[in-house]
Write a structure and sequence with these properties.
It is a single chain. By secondary structure, this protein is mainly alpha-helical. It folds into two domains: about 55 residues; about 120 residues, no CATH class. About 60% of the residues lie in helices and about 5% in strands. It contains nine helices and two strands, in the order ααααβαααβαα.
């Protein structure tokens, strides 16, 4: 909703209120559907359907949170400021996508259950590629990273999740933040042309 734009006058309170009402409408419809309409349609099975919907939504949200955070926030995933994006070349864009995302190592079941977003690096590099192709190009991307001295951050689900929470705690608590060191911009290969 970009509420930070209201005090600067870049966004009117009326516009923000309109957006908030639209969001509230979507939330209300989803709640009515999941926790009232479908359970009522089940008749005597109202309570099991209600609890099933609640459990399914909770599990989906926890799983989605885990996959998204593990692909964007473990140690090794770099964060960029808007100033760093100014004048970015196509090659630098690819390098930023690589440096700002991480993969999850695992078997076919993990990749299936994550919608192949366990290959977050490949997803960021090639967002239009069908997700079932990420596993095919991952070894080529890793080889390319080795060739150009670029990190290819990847780890097990347990390792990446622990790393995420370690990073969150480190950034949330008072004391030194251990900011990422300034790095010289690595060579920016055109990954699109190479892959």
């Amino acid at each position: 909703m970009e509420v930070e734009r209201i005090p600067t006058g870049d966004k009117s309170p009326k516009e923000a209120w309109t957006q908030l009402r639209a969001i509230a409408g979507k939330v209300r419809r989803q709640i009515v559907k999941d926790y009232l309409a479908f359970p009522l349609l089940a008749g005597p099975a109202f309570l099991p359907v209600l609890l099933g919907n609640l459990t399914a939504n909770l599990a989906r949200n926890v799983w989605a949170h885990t996959i998204i955070f593990c692909g964007h926030f473990p140690e090794g995933a770099e964060v960029f400021t808007e100033d760093q994006l100014e004048g970015e070349t196509r090659g630098e864009w690819y390098v930023r996508q690589l440096l700002g995302s991480c993969n999850l190592d695992g078997g076919k079941l993990l990749h299936l259950m994550s919608g192949n977003l366990s290959h977050q690096i490949e997803h960021h590099l090639f967002p239009d590629l069908p997700s079932n192709r990420y596993a095919q190009i991952a070894p080529r991307i890793r080889t390319l990273c080795e060739r150009f001295g670029l990190p290819y951050t990847s780890g097990t689900l347990a390792r990446q999740r622990a790393s995420v929470y370690n990073r969150i705690l480190r950034l949330a608590l008072p004391g030194p933040r251990h900011h990422q060191p300034e790095r010289a911009t690595p060579p920016a290969p055109d990954l699109h042309a190479i892959v």
